[in-house]
Every structure is written in structure tokens, then in C-alpha cells.
Model the fold of this input.
Amino acid sequence: MSDLPIHVQKNRDTWTKTSADWVAPGRRAWESPAITWGIWDVPESEVHALGDLEQWRGKDSIELGCGTGYVSSWLHRLGMRPLGVDITRAQLDTARAFQQEFGIEFPLIEASAENVPLPDASFDLAISEYGASIWCDPFAWIPEAARLLRPGGTLVFLRNSTLSVLCVPDVGTATSEMVRDYFGLHRVEYDAESVEFHLPTGPMIRLLRQCGFEIEELIDIQPPADAKPNRFDYISLEWSKRWPSEEIWRARKKG
Ligand SMILES: C[S@@+](CC[C@H](N)C(=O)[O-])C[C@H]1O[C@@H](n2cnc3c(N)ncnc32)[C@H](O)[C@@H]1O
Done:
């Protein structure tokens, strides 16, 4: 019997089954010389989610739900000391293979981002791009990120925008109609196989503040002018040009 919450077990099983599908996209991201964000590959040089990149040289980062590890590989190239955490062994195996292939090594830990076996105040940056930010319960992973960060440390995460979650049906593509309630939004189950989490804007602000964070930015993502339709069929390029399909939060742990 596992002590892990049911949603963590379900998500781990799903990611174990689908991990092979993420090898090719993972390799493309590892190959990318530039940091980009989300499903539209928005360049960091446009959104400035990480602020002044020089500030990160020599600092410690933890990626919560690191998957194939490309975000941490970019942080390594910035001069950081990254560490990746993921619950799915198959995903970490891919990350490890890429470390060998690209000659970039950093520690990888198999654990849930809701309960990380590392000491308090060990990192300057906690980051998640579609990792803990959507697969973990925010009431568990946000306090955990706060615990792991040093005073003055930064939390940056990308997730689906609240607006998009309201407009994406259980099956099919987002339309201009809202198909779920804003009030009470938290656990979102598009199918029986996995569990996502989405706390709307007001409750997310409250939670971050309760965990000792000051919010610095909430960046609404719009695809670049030259963005192409992609493999994600739950949301179209046309929709995403009109409304934000993704958002990046940056918050600082009070010193
Ligand atoms: C979209 S992927 C990771 C994103 C990463 N940027 C990438 O694309 O490789 C989501 C990852 O979250 C991980 N994950 C899901 N639930 C988790 C949990 N409770 N703790 C840590 N990782 C988790 C999955 O195993 C998966 O590798």
C-alpha cells in the first residue's frame, strides 16, 4: 500500500504510461539554446518571467515536477545549481538519458512535489512549468515550495490560465463558452485517469500570501505573432491569440 495520496498515484501511473511520448519534445527543448515557456514556446526574452537572468548565476534551484528536465538544463546553462524532483521514474529516466546526451548533470530526486525529502530553506528559486503547478494540490505544493525556499527566494510557475480552464470541456477544444464554474474551482478531472488542480486567481493570491509570498507578477501569455498550431488539441492558436491560454506567476518569499 502506498502512502501517497490517490491523485499522486493516479498521475504517476498516467505519466508512466505516456512518458515515451515526451522524449522527442523533451529532446527539442534540451536542444533549444533559448529559454521558452509553455505550449507556444514564448521566449523568456519577451516575458521576463525570471527577471534579470544574471541574478541566478551560482544560485540553487529546485524544479517541482521536472519531467524530462529541460527547464533545469536551461537554468544550468545560466550558471545555476539545479535539482529536479519528479514522482515518475520513467520521466526521470528520460531526464537522466538527456543529461548524458547533452553533458549536463544535476541531481534528480524521485518524490512527490507535495512532500519533498529535502531540508528547509535550501533553494533560491523554485520553478514549475506544467509540473507541480497543475498536477499537485496547491494547498500542499505551494507551502512546500515556501518551506524549501530561502528567505527572499523566488517562486515561478506556469500553468493553464483560469480563463482557459473554464472554457476547456472535458472532451474537445476550448470555445468562447465557459463550461465550468469559477467558484469552487480546485480539482479538475478531465478523465478518470488523472487529476489536475486549478485554483482561480483570487484564492491563489490568498494562498500565496498565507504562505509568506509577495506576488511580483502575473503574466498573461499570448502566443508570438509567428506561433504555429501545435500538438495540443484542447486549445487552438486562434483562441489563444484572443485570450490568455497560459499564465506565469512570480512571487517572492518574504525575507
Ligand atoms: C508536463 S510534465 C513536466 C513538465 C516539464 N517542464 C516537461 O515538460 O518535461 C509533468 C510532470 O509532472 C510530474 N508530476 C505529476 N505529479 C507529480 C507530483 N505529485 N510530484 C512531482 N512530479 C509530479 C509528472 O511525472 C511529469 O513528469
Notes: The chain has a mean pLDDT of 97. The first strand starts at residue 36 and ends at 37. The chain has one domain: 6-253. The radius of gyration is 17 Å.
